[in-house]
Amino acid sequence: xxxxxxxxxxxxxVGGSLTLGCSASGTSFLINSMGWYRQRPGxxxxxxxxxxxxxxxxxxxxxxxxxxxxxxxxxxxxHLHMNNLKxxxxxxxYCKTNVNWRSxxxxxxxxxxxxxxxQVTVSS
Length: 124
What we know:
By secondary structure, the chain is mainly β. The chain has strands spanning 2-8, 10-13, 18-26, 29-39, 45-52, 57-59, 67-72, 77-82, 91-103, 106-114, 118-123.
């Protein structure tokens, strides 16, 4: 199995910046991609940004011009940096990873694991 530990978040100001970190741990897995999703009150959980093990990135339209996602495969970590924060960025942010995991009975491919979530509140 794979565990994800998130860091960052909290109470931030409009126009400020945010850095979120997420580390994956476990045994016998290979990362295909890592990313961040967010869930605002009363809304669905939506993609913020993702990055593949090869470095290909994908950003949601509301954040694409003010966000950077990066991955360090050696440390199995992903970071999201977001500038020019807006009140609508207020949400619970979740880290997700997609892996191939070697179970006792063989490889299980494209398995998704989620972090517990971290609250980000942007206040004016």
